[in-house]
Structures are given as structure tokens and as C-alpha cells.
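Hello again, I could really use a second opinion on something today. I owe you a coffee for this, so here goes:
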Amino acid sequence: MPQVSPKLIAVLAGAAALIAGAVYLIGQGGGNPDRAARSGAFAALDAAAAGEVANFTPKPVPTALPEVRFRDRQGRETSLADFRGKLVLLNLWATWCAPCREEMPELDELQAELGGERFEVVALSVDSSGPEAVAAFLEKVGAKSLALYHDPSAKANFTLGAFGLPTTILISPDGEELGRMAGPAPWASEDAKGLIGEALRLYAPSPNS
């Protein structure tokens, strides 16, 4: 059997290491800048989902959401598409849902503090009784910053795969789901604001930043 020189062995070992490194980088997104960026954004959002919002589950790859239509306080039809260009925190709720009722003042406070051209809390009621009951409840809890949106058909729940209330979905300015949380959360907490702030940095940065 012919002898293999130590030099050749070293060369072959080095080549194998290079190939293994390339495969690892490609697997981590290194061979695709877009994939690497998505991977980095997911990791950052996942790290921000901590403390009071640890149950928020980001999506490794954001996915386009189906069209969802509903009505505003005046009965005019609107849709999620009308919020394109903003980071949206969509909260599906109802006045008969006790956990929903508890978190509504927190969502109102979050909207008051962070809402604007880059971000909006969209609290979408699925009450079948219509907007009057929703308006009365929002007034009762002193919610002044949340706009009234309602879907008496509750189709939004099924369209978005939300089979429990409350369900809160974070949506990119491009209309893609970034992640969601099933169940209530203290949305005015520092942890929640940190999560939204990180999402704004990643997906809706300030023109001045």
C-alpha cells in the first residue's frame, strides 16, 4: 500500500475544514444575505421576548397574513392592509373575555406612549353585539387612545388562526406576521415596551436613526 505523505494529509485536512466551515455558514445564512438578516432579526426579537412578555413567540421567517376586514366606530369598512407602513400590534378581544378586559387599559397606555406614524395598537373586538357595547366598555375603563374596531362576524379569529382570546399578533409594516402571543400580558410594562422598541428598530426604524 503506497505511503501518504504527512504534507498531503495536512492539505486534505485543511480542505475538509474549509468545506465544513462553508457548510456551517450557509446553514446559518452566511451564503444568503437575506437569510442571514432574517436569522439575525429573529434572534434579536426572540431575545427581546422576555420577562412579562416571555410568552410572545416570534416567527423564524415572517409570513404574509391573509386579508382581514372589519369596521371602525362609524361603521366604515377597513382592513389590515390599511395599516401598511406601520408596525402593528393587533389584539383580538371581546368584552365578555375577562383577561381581555384586564389588559385593555395596558394596551391603551401602550398606544398613548408609543403610537404614531411608525406604530399602532389595533384592538379588534369580536363582540357579536356590535360597536355600542365595545364603545361603552372602552369608555368605562377610560381608554382614550385606542381606536374602536369591531368584527361582529368573528371571522378574523378563524382567518388568523386565533382560537382563543385574547390573541395578540405583531405585524410588520409589510403586512407580515412577526410573532404572536396567546393569552393576556401587561402591555404597558417595560418588557413589552422593550419588545416593541426592538421590533421598531428592526422593521420600522426612525428616519433620523
